[in-house]
Amino acid sequence: xxxxxxxxxxxxxxxxxxxxxxxxxxxxxxxxxxxxxxxxxxxxxxxxxxxxxxxxxxxxxxxxxxxxxxxxxxxxxxxxxxxxxxxxxxxxxxxxxxxxxxxxxxxxxxxxxxxxxxxxxxxxxxxxxxxxxxxxxxxxxxxxxxxxxxxxxxxxxxxxxxxxxxxxxxxxxxxxxxxxxxxxxxxxxxxxxxxxxxxxxxxxxxxxxxxxxxxxxxxxxxxxxxxxxxxxxxxxxxxxxxxxxxxxxxxxxxxxxxxxxxxxxxxxxxxxxxxxxxxxxxxxxxxxxxxxxxxxxxx
Length: 299
Known about the structure:
By secondary structure, this protein is α/β, with parallel strands linked by helices.
């Protein structure tokens, strides 16, 4: 049993990771944004001195993609400065650091899954700030820093695309959904399992430091995902109609292709993530209960 510290523990992924680690019998402490400001070096060092973790998982982040376009400095503090502060504290304490990152650090113009060593080429402010966080961790902790990129994340513990589509199915006759962005819907509980397994493999000295891709397997578009949601609801998928990104202009440009490769899991002695449809089918009852039990919070 090892000691774990999870920052950003009040968020969707943080909640799932705390539950996963507790179920696995790990000694884990979760600190929410209110409990720990990761941009404050004194507070971070005090937290590590108090809890003495062997592994720190940073789930704290600025995740408002569009808002980052007009508030990049604030987003950079959370997504770039915070990870550097954590990395420096982990370097001094000897703890491993797992930094959660995003597909938005990549250009999004590929035609086949991005390998873990693809060059950083973010399209928007959010991506630039997350890329800064990646560099901070990998430069500060070349032997004990891990970056786990995820994408299209959903779960029962927070607002997300799938919960929104469940809500809209009940109030809209038809839905027009973007069909020119490809990615990998990823269940936050599956990502939590990947993070827990990676941390344990790293503690055993089996997982090399560096970048991993924490997305479910396969690929689809937002249109294809919504049709699958309708199918799981017992609704007619033909009510979902394809459209283009030009119909939904947003402040931050989105990558057209966010499919990530999973080769490095084998290097860590771990199985690659399962296919997205299998994960969604297992997650769906909790998503349905969460959404129909209360309004979606949105993201």
